[in-house]
Amino acid sequence: MSNLSAGQLTPVTPTRLCRCLFLLVLPLLVGGCGSILSGAGPSIAAINEAKDQDYTVVDLSAGTIGPYMRPKEAEMEAGVSKTAIPVVRLVPGDSIKITISDSSQEGAIFAPLATGGTVFSEIRVDADGTISLPYVGRPKVAGLTPHQVEALILRRVRNVATDPQVQVALTGDLSGSVLVAGAVKSPGRFSALQGPLTLLDAINQAGGPTMEPHLIRVTVRDGKTVQSFGYDEILAGRNQMVAPHSEIIVERARKRYVAMGSVTMPGLHDLPSNNPSLLEVLGNVGGLDERAADPSGVFVFRLSEEEGTGIPKAQVFRLNMKDPAAIFLARQFLVQPEDAIYVTNAAVYEWQKIISPIVQVLVLGRTIRTGY
């Protein structure tokens, strides 16, 4: 019997089921509701509805891009760092070589200067700041310059030598050395015996940074002050002398951004340059995903502080890459650290995500009916 009697239910076939699903989903698609779809972020409609939101949407155009443009590259400075030799004062851990000579030819305790004198090599300044030397005792030398140590020893040996001469040379300069640590190829402590060290001298002796200059931050501590520089700033002309016994910390600068949505390589990335453009950043992640991206939905999410107030300010910059002029705008727009670049999915891609399961059910239903 082909017709069903009253009260009986119409059998649910795969075709009927798919039609019902389609009718349920169609209003959602027409209404722009993407909440039932998987995705990496909000839809264009959700972002564009900025009413009653805690952020402002800025459409990038020739008239609005002015405050957000990349700055001009800073010119290299012509000056070089001063190389004034700092005063070296001994500290515990320093090593010195002491030469004492006597002009007397007979019965002298110390050898004459003509034969090289009496040499005491590698005399280390102890933890209490003293040294141990025959006929001199244990004088305290910490805080003294090598010339002051010469005068101190000379006064103590005059009672045992006819015409003594004293020379003090620094051989291990913990007091004048510089420590370089962090993101360099060969971290360690480096001597200033061959001459005063600048920031570039010390970092180059440590093998140089392990990353590109714009990703490096240099912190210098000298016991009194702390200074911080971008490594690219040092290369541009801010190189300077390093005070004795300083510490130089080379570390990664937090210059990163997040790429989300329909880009070829989503994730956390380093900025490709010091002042990167949006076009440069998109190229850094392989560009838009041509299979899924909607070029009219390129967004930059930024959280900053209002100048002078410190109040958080959330902004969303919108760029329609379908417009040929957008390429020039993307070349001028400055991407800042901690920005989030988000590209929405195309409507046809969203449609495919819904229609594909329906087509699969239809194919499955036909296979069941036909038996193959």
What percent of the residues sit in helical stretches (DSSP H or I)? 10-25%
* Class inferred from helices and paired strands: alpha+beta
CATH architecture label of one domain: Roll
How many helices in DSSP terms? 8
In terms of per-residue confidence, which ranges show pLDDT below 50 for 5 or more consecutive residues?
A: 28-37
Describe this structure in words.
With 372 residues, the protein is α+β, with helices and mostly antiparallel strands. Among the domains are: 44-71 and 275-350, Outer membrane lipoprotein wza domain like (Outer membrane lipoprotein wza fold like, Roll); 95-172, wza like fold, CATH 3.30.1950; 178-252, Outer membrane lipoprotein wza domain like (Outer membrane lipoprotein wza fold like). The protein is built from eight helices and 14 strands. It has helices spanning 14-30, 44-48, 146-157, 199-205, 231-238, 278-284, 325-332, 347-370; strands at 55-59, 95-102, 118-124, 164-172, 178-182, 188-190, 216-221, 226-230, 247-252, 256-261, 267-270, 293-305, 312-319, 340-345. The strands form three sheets. A six-stranded mixed β-sheet has the order 1-13-12-14-10-11. A hairpin with a 5-residue loop joins strand 10 and strand 11. The longest helix is centred in the last third of the chain and has 24 residues, at 347-370.
